[in-house]
Amino acid sequence: MSGCSGGGKSTLLAELVARGYRTVAEPGRRIVTEELKGSGASLPWADPEAFARRAVEMALADRAALEPDGDIFFDRGLIDAAAALEHSAGVPVERTLAGQARFHQQVFLVPPWPEIYETDPDRRHGYDAAVDEHDRLLAVYERLGYTAVLLPKTGVAARADFVLSRLA
User: Which residues form the NadR/Ttd14 AAA domain (predicted)?
Assistant: First the structure.
């Protein structure tokens, strides 16, 4: 899962967990939680490049720790982290991903949805920045040859049904 911040990825993944699927939590949220308890040096609003590098490391560790059997849904993940590193430091996504196995051909992106977008202590950027991020991610996934599937702006159960029907 990828796409616009505040677009409902985490809520959708919680629904997929309730239906028995495995998920991996977003690296960015985990990093912010850790950094707020520590020095705060790698917070996205303090040092975007350090944050992106940590997100890449965490996403690589997440992927290495998983058994590959069955479906696993990532809340963001390695490609999103690589896109953040490209945006913050100019490191090409292709270089960060070199040697990594590809993910499923279809990637589901939540579209910008102003009616549900909210900031919070971990998500301090505004809606316009979230839309810009979504546009960058869509371009990266398409550049890498993935099929980007935009999720409908519907309730969480209908979104989960949509994802699972596309994968059937």
Answer: 1-159
- Listed in sequence order, the residues at least 6 apart from 96 whose beta carbon sits closer than 8 Å to its beta carbon are 56, 81, 82, 85, 86
Check which CATH number belongs to the domain holding 139 and give it.
Answer: 3.40.50.300
What's the CA gap between 88 and 160, in Å, rounded?
A: 32
User: Is the CA virtual torsion 113, 122, 12, 158 positive or negative?
Assistant: negative
As averages over each run of 10 residues, the pLDDT of the chain (168 residues) reads 89 96 92 91 93 96 84 93 97 96 93 86 82 96 97 96 96
Q: Please give the residue range of the domain that contains residue 53.
A: 2-167
CB neighbour class for 43 (10 Å; exposed up to 12, middle 13-18, buried from 19): buried
Rounded CA gap, 13 and 1, in Å?
A: 8
Count of domains observed in the chain: 1
